[in-house]
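re: ur question from the group chat, yeah i did fold both. here u go
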Amino acid sequence: MTSEISLSSVLDLRAAMPLKAEILAVRGQAVMLDGSAVQRLGGLCFQVLLAAIRTWREDGQSLTFVNVSEAFAAQWSALGASVSDLGVQGEIV
């Protein structure tokens, strides 16, 4: 079973704790994170997403990003990570 989580348009300080809770609620399952709405990615949510990628890899589960917006991809890279780390399925939109 694959769960899908739609990421908010603004992933800032206020979004970090709800994002963490939403992701952890589906731990142990394959997860697709829809990044199509993301317009702003802050440092704390960036860290939450990096931790999720690492946790899912350690758990042997699939965590993939789908429909990643250009803004999300650009800010992900600006924060020092590679877009290839996202395991993006499909094209960046």
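okk and heres the other one u asked abt
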Amino acid sequence: MEESQLLNPTNIGNWKLRNRIVMAPMTRSFADDHTGVVRRDVVEYYRRRAADGIGLIITEGINPSPRAKGTFGIPGLYTKDQITAWRKVTDAVHKEGGTIVAQLWHVGRLTHPKLTGGYPPQAPSSIRAEGLVHRLRKPYEMPEEMTESAIQRVIKEYAQAARNAMDAGFDGVEIHGAHGYLIDQFNSEVTNIRKDRYGGNLAQRLTFMKEVLTAVVKEIGAEKTIIRFSEIKDDLPNYQWGEPEETIKTFIRSFQDIGICIVHPSTNHFTEILVNGMTLHELVRKYWKGVIIGVGNLNVDLASNAIREGMIDLAAFGRPLLANPDFVERVKQGRAIASYDPKRDLCSLL
């Protein structure tokens, strides 16, 4: 039987990845809710996946500031105690030969003052999100439209968090610019109706994202910076890009302007057609020559074929890695991948 393309090693910048399997970022809420410090069991959670041989681990979303928090138990990277705790995680992963990057995540308007220390949600425009805050189960509150000084402050917080990630021993960072969170709120015409340089047409609305990426790249380098972006919005299930191909071209030009090397286009369904018979990842590959991380309910065969065809370079898996801490070994041996069972999810920590 032909060996899966997932098992081929690859070098990306200074990262020497043992294979092309990526642990997708998954909200786990395992940090102390008051301090944002990850606990010792989180060390074992990531160490075990590294010991299995996963090529690249992307952490759960990590807040660059207290106002970025969108639910209970989210870790941070803005205090010394948080940095020290994450250092234990990265040390454990590196001892197992793994590579790990920190996903930096600001939820913007999708939060509540009870989670942000009493501060109102931040957003590009004062437009209230519909629905209930995750786990808190309270309606979203009206967000505070960010002034330009507030925008610059948040950009500095991203840059500082990226620097802190390096101090904590991470190999890089992923900027979460997808799923309707703060960066994506600036990107979208639904949530951004500003009249200044951060609003306007799509290219202008991407200004905030570009400034965040530019600040992060200045701190840690383009080769260590991943950007995640998407059409899908967690709070707007029916949202669609009006002109998908032109939208992707505009995003790609922005990434090329900054000089980053790795993109992570996010979708719930990898094979879903976006436009003109092409999927999201096929459209991105049409215009992007750099590294693409594929994601979206992938299975081993689908991911392996996509890598073989050159559509993607790395394949990210989420729930299969929770259900199978020995995922890589199962792929090597051609064994069945166990299905994820949410009733057993607490056991997946170990």
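fwiw on the second one: DSSP finds eleven helices and 14 strands in the chain. The chain has a mean pLDDT of 96. idk if thats what u expected
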